[in-house]
Amino acid sequence: MNKKMNKFKSIATFFLVGLILIGLANPALGDVSVSINTDKNSYYLGDAVKFTVVINITNEDTCTINQPKLSIHGGSSIVCDLPATSMSNVVYGNCNLSMTLYANTDDCFGYSSASTVYRYSFEWKMPQNWSTGLNYAGANVIFESNNYSSETSFFVVNILAGDPVELMKFADTSDTGIDNIIHYTVIVRNNDTQPLNVSLNDTADNNLRFVGNVTVNCNCSEYGYNATPWVFTTNPQERAADWWVNLAGLPPNCTCTLKTTAKVINTIGSVIINKVTAISDNETNAVIDRANVTVKFKVIPTPPPLPPKKTGGGFPQGAATIEPVKVTIEQKILTDIPDIITPKTQCFNVKSLRNKFEDGILVETTEKNLTNITVVLYLPDETQTLIKTDENGNVCFDFVCGNYTINITQKNFEEYVKSFTAYYGKLSITPADLTGVNTGETLTYVIKDNDKNSVSEVFVNVTLPAGKELNFITKSDGKVAFNTGTEEGNYVVFAWKYCYANDTLTGVIKKPVVCGDGLCGKDENCSNCESDCGACYIPKLMINCTNYIEAGGIIVCSVSDESGKSVSYASVTLTDGRSAKTGGDGKVKFTANQPGTIDANAVKGGYVDSEKTRISVSEKGCFLFNISFLSICWYWWLILILILILIVLIFGKKKESQ
């Protein structure tokens, strides 16, 4: 028995030692994760982009990472080396990153529940010539011969960070056509620490001419430039193709808003380009700064004129002619590109359409993918690129925000030209029905996207009565709050963000109604303020009925107001309990039942009740002469007398015969 027990203990000990050795040789299952984030979603050219990269290693038997890197790519690209050991506030690597790395290596051998964490915090100074639009940033690290990575995205706006002059331009439409009017808004701001002389010049292409006027409004109390420096001629032969405004001594942090309109006079090409340039001359620092903004629009082509209608025709009488079948072939190029796309890598199909007509009747249609053909794509920066379709007829491209035009030319085919826009959706100013407000009131609007999410970094321009303008940039909650001021009139809220369709809201500001001040104001009346404006006049009903009628006759009652106008749907009530409503002519009818007197009156909401009117109902009249006794007509008395006489005569003859 003891030998068996010892043998059992030896086997148990063997297995226990084996399990310990296996645990030492194979620690708990490990995990490696990488994340990267930026401090903002969008940046200006030359901005410092702040990155946070976290590498988390759990339950691994080593702490060593290899070749950590940062890659940034869009239209431009760069790859930056990252350190693998802790350091603080140093400029590191080939990209001159302002770097801090904290490495916590608590679990280098996987014996605890702690993790090894590499936390990078660094800034990358974006070059001023970096590509605008959507950019991607990725963090990559090699751990135990395996690659681990993560990626994020951010936007680069075509504005220089820290620029002495900040310039923005936008329009109220992205589609236009011949004879249409385009409303432009130009925003210019002095970001310097001292006053600047800023010269603005706006130049239109051959498709546009400026009309109306140019207005300038600056929001700086110490800078009183609120004027209309340009009023354009209405002569079509002399319309202006450009305008300029000089803002002398524009103070620091001062923003000016300029508004103008242009008319489309031609539709040459697929886009309309309108450029504005701001040049600042700081005499102290001798700084010359130029900021160019280009606005493009998709052109709505003017439809071609219809061919002249054929008249006459036929054959001469007696002639018999059989004409051959007229065959025509129509070949077109088609794509599935919509008018609006989302900025990202997308593929669209290109195919041919062949239609065969016989005597103008379509008899055959053939579609085919166009493979390995060259497509010209005009980009938002006014450059172009050539792309070949693949074996399925698809053309693929990494689209960023802006306006595009695709052009496809093939022999024996109609030229294909299509303009489209890439953006993230339309902004909406909410609530949209908050349009009737009072002076001195604080309004709060929220800027949202198509999915009803609040949108940050939206430029919001508010134009109050008397031309006062306010400008805001929304934060993460998308809110804009402002006071309506003291002036009555219309106000306009305009929201704009790069890569979004803008939105405009208009409303009316009125002075609040103050009831009880003894003055009947513009918005006061007898309904909302009787104490100031007096009681409201209430019209009175007038009733006119048939005054005398025989029993069985028809009583007609007419109801009107004091001016004699008929009143419909008024209730007319008789004292015998009957009631009815007047028709469209203001009249109502009753049957006179019993002899006697009846009173009638009329009532209706919004009117004073009528006075009572009396109706006399008499016995029904006698034939020929209205003479009666004891309510019996005279001819019945006559008939009764004749009957009595006849009876007397008959009885008298009988007595004589006896």
Condensed summary:
8% of the residues lie in helices and 50% in strands. A hairpin with a 4-residue loop joins strand 19 (271-282) and strand 20.
Structural description of this entry:
The protein has 5 domains: 31-159, Immunoglobulin-like (Sandwich); 162-300, Immunoglobulin-like, CATH 2.60.40; 327-422, Immunoglobulin-like; 428-510, Immunoglobulin-like (Sandwich), CATH 2.60.40; 542-618, Sandwich (Immunoglobulin-like). The chain is elongated, with a radius of gyration of 46 Å. Strands 1-3-8-7-6 form a 5-stranded antiparallel β-sheet, with no helix packed on it. Strands 2-10-9-4-5 form a 5-stranded mixed β-sheet, with no helix packed on it. A 5-stranded antiparallel β-sheet has the order 11-13-18-15-16, with no helix packed on it. Strand 25 and strand 26 form a beta hairpin. The chain has 658 residues and is mainly beta. The N and C termini lie far apart (170 Å). It is built from 3 helices and 47 strands.
What is the CATH architecture term of the largest domain?
Sandwich
Intertermini distance: 170 Å
Q: Poorly predicted ranges (pLDDT <50, ≥5 residues)?
A: 1-5, 11-29, 283-287, 309-321
Number of helices: 3
Instruction: Give a short account of the largest sheet.
Output: 5 strands, antiparallel
- The proportion of strand residues reads over 45%
pLDDT averaged residue by residue: 81
| Coarse structural class | mainly beta
Which CATH first-tier class of the largest domain would you pick? Mainly Beta
User: What helical percentage do the residues reach?
Assistant: under 10%
Shape estimate: elongated
The whole-angstrom Rg is 46 Å
Q: What is the count of distinct domains?
A: 5
Strand order of the largest sheet: 1-3-8-7-6
CATH fold description of the largest domain: Immunoglobulin-like
Strands, total number: 47
